[in-house]
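User: Second chain of the day. Same drill as before.
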Amino acid sequence: MSLSQITLSLSRAAEEHHEQVINPWIVGAITIAILLAMIGALVAFGGGREHT
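Assistant: Same format as last time:
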């Protein structure tokens, strides 16, 4: 078996097992939304309290 045939068979095998991947931009947007919500909750909770 020649090197080109091995390479071709490996590339075909890799293409057959394609998994659905979550878009990294969506993961980043969800992470930013969670962090901003946590900062908003922190500011809302601490905004009405006196400093000691």
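Residues 3-47 form one domain.

User: Great, on to the next one.
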